[in-house]
Specification:
GO terms for molecular function: acyl-CoA dehydrogenase activity; flavin adenine dinucleotide binding. This protein is α+β, with helices and mostly antiparallel strands. The chain has 12 helices and 9 strands. The protein folds into 3 domains: 113 residues, Acyl-CoA dehydrogenase/oxidase, N-terminal domain (Butyryl-Coa Dehydrogenase, subunit A, domain 1, Orthogonal Bundle); 122 residues, Butyryl-CoA Dehydrogenase, subunit A, domain 2; 146 residues, Butyryl-CoA Dehydrogenase, subunit A, domain 3 (Up-down Bundle), CATH 1.20.140.10. The protein binds flavin-adenine dinucleotide.
Length: 399
């Protein structure tokens, strides 16, 4: 398998930014626990942060460009890379459900301009609805007289929540229909009734802002319902009749987005592996480099193999998604599950190889380990991925 010249060029360009701009700043922004606006702006200025860049990566007919770009950025540093790529979550939400007019109006506003870059947030999770997204309590009510939607509720864990220019909020329109009674809404910049909640202090990804968001009689124009009212009414009517048609579409959306998240985990794992490999060649104990011990060299061999396995699963699922193949065995979930678990395992091994140094903040692998852990939790926990795969391969509703 060989990458095309264009794919190699983009990969090397993104790698250069990761190596020369992101990496040198990684420790500082991890310690500051703040959104690295100057780096987002630099990414915007070179055309790496913005909807045109995303469209270019997405246009690659093999589907590999987006995971390659993500792997390189997260190889640089996961916290900063998430500050750059977090907006993509909201953009994907608009892309999945929006009309062409809604995409044209809102996607550019998610990014702002190179002189004044913005970020966007995708708010689904709630304090009582994490893995179980069918039980959202945030409600959206239609005020027909004013052609406005009124949203009330509380969102949890939103990447860029409260600091975003555009918030995409998933809310329940007909709670008794579960996930099928939900819809996604744009909350335009400066809308009254949306207030930032507490910013969370996290174990890892500390340069990425994660916060609660409160919606208190938050009114948005009718045109902010993604997909439009007519489509929603049709969908609700079908759901009320108990027809199953669109459930498949929601599952496919997850299978499409999960490989990109897996690619991020691969980037973190590769960074830790490369660091540990070099360290093992330099560090001398008992009169020889520690890599000359099979215990260390075999660990590195396994790390390399696991990373390559994870990447191949990510690339397979990305290629399947882009070329319209059916995810019969939940291959998208498989790729995210494997990559997330590999990232945790590899970064832990890297700390072991660095010994005491691996446990200190003087060396980057402990940060990589902290960053990696979230990949078995967000975008569907490892248990939920296994559930999805088990259901797909068995055709049985496993609980
Ligand atoms: C850094 C970070 C960023 C995030 N960004 C966003 C964001 O931008 N937007 C957003 O909407 N959300 C975001 N999230 C939320 C994230 O998606 C949820 O944390 C995740 O879905 C898990 O939900 P939960 O935390 O409520 O855990 P729970 O659902 O309470 O799960 C707790 C444990 O129970 C297990 N479990 C639950 N149900 C089952 C089951 N049926 N079978 C077996 N095991 C089960 C889980 O696997 C897990 O181990 C973010 C989270 C973090 C940590």
């Amino acid at each position: 398998m060989e990458l095309s010249e264009e794919q190699r060029e983009i990969r090397d360009w993104v790698h250069g930014f990761a190596e020369n701009v992101i990496r040198p700043a990684a420790h500082e922004w991890d310690e500051r626990e703040e959104t690295p606006w100057p780096i987002i702006q630099e990414a915007a200025k070179i055309g790496l942060y913005g909807f045109e860049a995303l469209a270019q990566f997405y246009a690659d007919p093999t589907g590999l460009m987006l995971p390659i770009v993500n792997e390189e950025l997260f190889w640089g540093d996961a916290g900063i890379a998430m500050a750059i790529m977090g907006t993509t979550l909201a953009v994907a939400g608009i892309y999945a459900s929006g009309t062409p007019e809604q995409m044209a109006e809102w996607i550019p506003q998610c990014y702002g301009t190179p002189d004044d870059p913005k970020v966007a947030a995708f708010c689904v999770s709630e304090p009582d609805a994490g893995s179980d997204v069918s039980s959202l309590r945030t409600r959206a009510r239609y005020d027909e007289a004013k052609d406005e939607w009124v949203l009330n509720g509380q969102k949890a864990w939103a990447t860029n929540g409260g600091i975003a220019n555009v918030h995409v909020v998933v809310a329940s329109v007909e709670p008794e229909l579960g996930a099928r009674g939900q819809a996604a809404f744009i909350i335009p910049p400066g809308t009254k009734g949306l207030t930032p909640g507490q910013k969370l202090k996290k174990h890892g990804l500390r340069a990425s802002h994660t916060a609660e968001v409160f919606l208190d009689d938050c009114r948005v124009p009718g045109r902010c319902l993604l997909g439009g009212k007519e489509k929603l009414d049709e969908r609700l009517a079908r759901a009320r009749e108990g027809k199953r048609a669109k459930q498949h579409a929601a599952m496919r959306t997850f299978e499409l987005s999960r490989p990109t998240v897996g690619a991020q985990a691969v980037g973190i794992a590769r960074a830790a592996y490369e660091y540990a490999l070099e360290y093992a060649k330099q560090r001398v104990q008992f009169g020889r480099p520690i890599i000359e011990n099979q215990a260390i060299a075999f660990m590195l061999a396994d790390m390399k193999m696991e990373i390559d396995c994870a990447r191949l699963l990510v690339w397979r699922a990305s290629w399947m998604g882009r070329t319209g193949k059916e995810f019969q065995n939940a291959e998208g979930s498989m790729s995210k599950l494997k990559a997330g678990e590999v990232a945790v395992w590899v970064t832990e091994r890297a700390m072991q190889i660095l010994g005491g140094n691996g446990y200190t903040r003087e060396y980057p692998v402990e940060r990589m380990h902290r960053d990696a852990k979230v990949y078995t939790i967000f975008e569907g926990t490892s248990e939920i991925q296994r559930l999805v795969i088990a259901r797909a391969i068995s055709g049985t509703y496993i609980r």
